[in-house]
Specification:
Helix content is 33%, strand content 25%. It is α/β, with parallel strands linked by helices and 252 residues long.
């Protein structure tokens, strides 16, 4: 381990990636998809960007888990410290369960600091450096247009408290209160208060564990914090890889 404190990166890649597979023409695991070189896949880029800053990478998979595991063992395990966790309920539970499994593994390992990133993002390595090197909790934003068909957004209410919004049907957003700011989320967060995070996870209801999105844990953690107690980091180069065209734009 790099030092006294143990830093963990959680990547969730359990979903079926239906939109991506449809754009490719066959069922595939989005994070390890490549066309010529495995080093161009999203997982490889995420590992490269974070290698200098974290002690362990926890990859939570589900769909085609054996294929994912075999790829990691073959291509990445010698270069990176990686653990895989299987989400047996990737099909019938919401994304909150994948994050919960990743967090539980990080707690078990004794992590003092945790960064969570969606596993289908391309982010400039310099932006990951900013996240890791910041000495506070972190939420992120990007400069892409806010679009309900693909965005996770957040806004600040008149009390400067953050609220995350997402439509799982990818149709519309609805905000039923006054707000001062709205941003497109960078879908990467850093947690430094591990005891608070553990408390949130322990007190999740069965419904929240099974049906909720990962924004439930994130909202519970950041929603009650004063805006000045955590950092908002703007991500300069950000691509959410929803289709194969998004993947190819990363190559460009």
């Amino acid at each position: 381990m790099r030092g006294i404190k143990m830093k963990a990166l959680i990547l969730t890649v359990a979903g079926m990636s239906t939109r991506f597979s449809q754009s490719v023409g066959y069922e595939c695991i989005k994070c390890i998809y490549h066309e010529n070189d495995i080093k161009t896949c999203i997982l490889s880029r995420l590992l490269q960007s974070n290698q200098k800053y974290c002690d362990i990478v926890i990859v939570v998979g589900g769909f085609k888990f054996d294929e994912l595991n075999q790829c990691i063992d073959r291509e990445f395990i010698e270069e990176y410290d990686i653990l895989t966790v299987k989400n047996e309920h990737y099909f019938d539970y919401g994304s909150n369960y994948s994050l919960l499994l990743g967090l539980e593994k990080a707690f078990e390992l004794g992590a003092d600091e945790i960064v969570f990133s969606e596993g289908d993002l391309y982010v400039n390595p310099d932006d990951f450096k900013k996240i890791w090197c910041d000495d506070r909790d972190v939420i992120t934003a990007n400069f892409m247009p806010i679009d309900a068909s693909k965005s996770v957004a957040f806004y600040y209410d008149i009390k400067s408290q953050v609220h995350y919004i997402f439509d799982s049907s990818h149709e519309t957003f609805e905000i039923n209160e006054s707000f001062t700011t709205i941003r497109n989320s960078g879908q990467i967060w850093k947690f430094k208060n591990i005891n608070r995070l553990k408390e949130i996870c322990i007190n999740l209801t069965e419904k929240e564990k099974q049906q909720g999105t990962n924004l439930i844990i994130i909202q519970k953690y950041f929603g009650q914090k004063k805006r000045e107690t955590y950092s908002l980091i703007d991500i300069s180069n950000w691509i959410n890889c929803n289709t194969v065209d998004d993947f190819r734009s990363i190559l460009e």
